[in-house]
């Protein structure tokens, strides 16, 4: 018994001293470069001939011979190297695959009563483990039934020449079929025919794939129409061309094209049109995105091939253009194509002087992920859209593009555009509508540098329903503006950062001449900063019904401005709840020849400026405050030192500039609400009497503050009121609500 225990202990100690098989990898592959000769294998082998080494390119492979083409180091350890011999180097373009393939033998003879070596035992166990791993790797590359299949013991049929293997009619096993009894999509070869025209004529409407792996020429003046049942499969060297010096050769494709996106498959002297190409690439027509080759002919040919519908997709690279890229209307005024790229990597640049780099007359167009760069100042416009104002369909959707260095980045007329999420830099004018611009959305764009961010002009039709939202407009040029409006109706400008740093340049410039007009502009939540000695917002000419709510009128870096908001010839404006931060000096609100201007609860640069504005306000119309509450003009200014003012029949009042404590409101009606703008320091006695309620301490307001009260018990002198809202515009109150 002691001998047995000693043997077990000795076996355990010896076993612990040997290594285990902890790596499951048994195969490694390298891409060769023609110079490297030593390739590591990170797994265990017992003998040098436990490895197979194969060189391959494409589907051609060569098995290397041990000690002739290569030698092995590291056998018996956790890994080693395969070293190629001189003359057997692996050339660039080849792959070198090293696979372990342990021989399926067991060479240890265990004798009865003989010694049992732990090292020998573990080596044999390791060998079995490695064989199992090798088998698993081979099984993983085999065709297998899914785990849920009930079929087992599937036999592969005996090989019979010129037959196909497939499932039997019961789906329970494999069998052979004569090729004449099986209907399969057939692959044909252009070399079987005298020409592409002959192939199309002979194949007819039979479903086929025609492989084109050489240059095939369409005869002089011939049109070849490929039916929808015929696929054209272009492989290396495959190309269709027209006849040099001949007439017009046309290839009309109604089927599918299969080709490498970077392979040229259409040559010169050939017009390609299609019914369903889907996605095409400029490279199919010979474009090379190397920053030197002129690609405009190839690009325009690709657009022609798309017709009405499909996508032109640009690769990463720089495409040069010696003339305009034309996107024409195809069906009526419509083109309905997409032009897409990889973003900043798909660059189009002009190589000679031109007016437009991209010129579009077709509607329902999408341009996305394209970068247009005019660093040589060859082109005037980056993209020019020339669409009819009478057509109410979508003009274009332009998004995720970068456009820089042009006189005008995007120049357009017509209606219904969606211009969003673009990056625009150093265009003199980033986005310009020479006419119209109705029902257009311009949002989430970034515009840096240049003189004008967005300009709305009029030739025959003014902008209407245009929305300019969530843009960042940081323009720097003089004689410009963040936004310029020459004509427009019902425009919404909201939540933009508009910062014009150019001297004498306003943030927003409404400039109307002649018989044109600008009316019903709603400015909401914008940051507006003008340049030195200019304005955050400036309006002159025939303008009316302007609405300014929750905007910030500021100056740049403490520079002096003429005014935050300047209104000239303005008829009717609401200026509600805005901030004026003119830290460099300047008038908060300047008015010339205006009427019916309502200013409520704005925060001025100076503490008392709002009181002066309110005192000069003429309130004649109803106006809309935040919360969609209607405040009429019924009311007035409380008399000096009046402590119990009458509010009969009114709902909007201004307290006198003289400091006063109000103890009650007389002549109230149950349910009546009143809004009071403080003209000076006004105290509401809510602490000691029961007629004014809503706070345990007195409400002390400063000039410009707004309070809202509701009558809960009516009466001539005994009406009871409760505080509903307190807007601390001045930030100078000393009470609490």
Distance between the termini: 95 Å
Overall pLDDT metric: 85
Number of strands: 66
SS-based class: mainly beta
Tell me the strand percentage band. 35-45%
Query: Rounded to an integer, what's the Rg over CA atoms?
Result: 41 Å
Count of runs of 4 or more consecutive helical residues = 5
Characterize the largest beta sheet: strand count, sense, and whether it forms a barrel: 14 strands, parallel
Poorly predicted runs of 5 or more residues? 1-17, 606-633
Shape: elongated
Q: What level of helicity do the residues show? A: under 10%
Notes on the protein architecture:
The protein has 737 residues and is mainly β. A hairpin with a 6-residue loop joins strand 8 (163-167) and strand 9.
In brief, what are we looking at here?
With about 725 residues, the chain is mainly beta. Helices cover about 10% and strands about 40% of the residues.
């Amino acid at each position: 018994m002691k001998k047995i225990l000693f043997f077990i202990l000795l076996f355990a100690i010896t076993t612990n001293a040997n290594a285990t098989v902890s790596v499951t990898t048994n195969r490694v592959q390298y891409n060769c470069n023609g110079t490297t000769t030593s390739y590591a294998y990170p797994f265990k082998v017992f003998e040098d001939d436990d490895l197979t080494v194969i060189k391959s390119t494409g589907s051609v492979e060569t098995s290397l011979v041990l000690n002739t083409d290569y030698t092995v180091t590291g056998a018996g350890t956790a890994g080693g190297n395969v070293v190629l011999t001189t003359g057997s180097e692996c050339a660039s373009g080849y792959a070198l695959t090293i696979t372990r393939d342990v021989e399926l033998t067991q060479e240890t003879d265990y004798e009865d009563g003989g010694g049992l070596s732990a090292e020998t035992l573990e080596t044999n166990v390791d060998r079995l483990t490695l064989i199992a791993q090798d088998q698993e790797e081979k099984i993983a590359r085999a065709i297998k039934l899914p785990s849920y299949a009930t079929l087992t013991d599937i036999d592969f049929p005996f090989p019979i020449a010129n037959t196909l293997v497939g499932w039997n009619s019961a789906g329970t096993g494999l069998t052979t079929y004569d090729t004449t009894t099986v209907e399969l999509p057939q692959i044909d070869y252009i070399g079987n025919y005298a020409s592409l025209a002959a192939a199309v004529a002979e194949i007819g409407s039979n479903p086929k794939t025609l492989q084109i792996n050489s240059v095939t020429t369409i005869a002089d003046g011939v049109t070849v129409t490929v039916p929808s049942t015929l696929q054209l499969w272009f492989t290396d060297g495959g190309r269709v061309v027209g006849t040099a010096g001949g007439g017009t050769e046309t290839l009309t494709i109604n089927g599918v094209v299969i080709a490498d996106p970077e392979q040229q498959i259409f040559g010169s002297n050939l017009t390609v049109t299609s019914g369903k190409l889907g996605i095409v690439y400029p490279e199919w027509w010979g474009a090379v995105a190397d920053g030197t080759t002129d690609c405009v002919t190839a690009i325009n040919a690709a657009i022609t091939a798309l017709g009405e519908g499909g996508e032109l997709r640009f690769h990463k690279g720089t495409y040069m253009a010696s003339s305009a890229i034309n996107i024409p209307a195809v069906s009526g005024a419509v083109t309905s194509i997409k032009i897409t790229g990889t973003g900043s990597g798909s660059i189009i640049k002009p190589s000679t002087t031109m007016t437009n780099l991209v010129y579009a007359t077709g509607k329902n167009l999408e341009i996305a992920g394209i970068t247009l760069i005019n660093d040589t100042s060859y082109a005037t416009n980056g993209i020019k859209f020339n669409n009819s104002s009478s057509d109410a369909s979508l003009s274009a959707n332009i998004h995720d593009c970068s456009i820089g260095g042009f006189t005008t980045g995007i120049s357009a007329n017509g209606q219904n555009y969606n211009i969003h999420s673009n990056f625009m830099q150093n265009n003199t004018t980033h986005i310009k509508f020479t006419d119209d611009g109705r029902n257009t959305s311009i949002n989430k764009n970034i515009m840096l540098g240049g003189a004008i961010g967005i300009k709305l002009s009029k030739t025959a039709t003014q902008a209407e329903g245009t929305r300019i939202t969530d843009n960042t407009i940081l323009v720097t040029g003089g004689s410009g503006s963040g936004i310029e409006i020459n004509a427009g109706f019902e425009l919404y400008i909201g939540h933009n950062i508009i910062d014009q740093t150019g001297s004498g340049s306003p943030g927003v410039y409404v400039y109307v001449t002649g018989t044109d007009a600008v009316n019903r502009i709603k400015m909401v939540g914008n940051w507006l900063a003008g340049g030195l000695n200019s304005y955050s917002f400036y309006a002159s000419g025939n303008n009316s019904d302007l609405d300014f709510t929750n905007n910030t009128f500021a100056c740049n870096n403490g520079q002096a401005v003429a005014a935050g908001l300047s209104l000239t010839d303005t008829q009717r404006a609401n200026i509600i709840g805005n901030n004026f931060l003119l830290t460099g000096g300047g008038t908060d609100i300047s008015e010339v020849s205006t009427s019916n201007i309502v200013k409520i609860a704005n925060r001025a640069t100076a503490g008392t400026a709002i009181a002066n504005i309110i005192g000069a306000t003429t309130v004649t119309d109803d106006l809309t405050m935040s919360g969609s509450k209607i405040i009429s003009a019924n009311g007035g200014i409380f008399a000096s030192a009046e402590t119990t003012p009458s509010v009969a029949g009114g709902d909007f009042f201004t307290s006198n500039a003289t400091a006063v404590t109000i103890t009650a409101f007389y002549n109230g009606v149950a349910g009546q609400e009143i809004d009071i703008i403080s003209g000076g320091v006004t105290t509401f006695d809510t602490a000691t009497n029961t007629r004014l309620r809503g706070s345990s301490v007195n409400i002390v307001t400063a000039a410009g503050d707004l309070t809202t009260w509701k009558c809960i018990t009516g009466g001539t002198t005994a009406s009871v009121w409760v505080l509903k809202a307190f807007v601390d515009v001045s930030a100078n109150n000393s009470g609490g609500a």
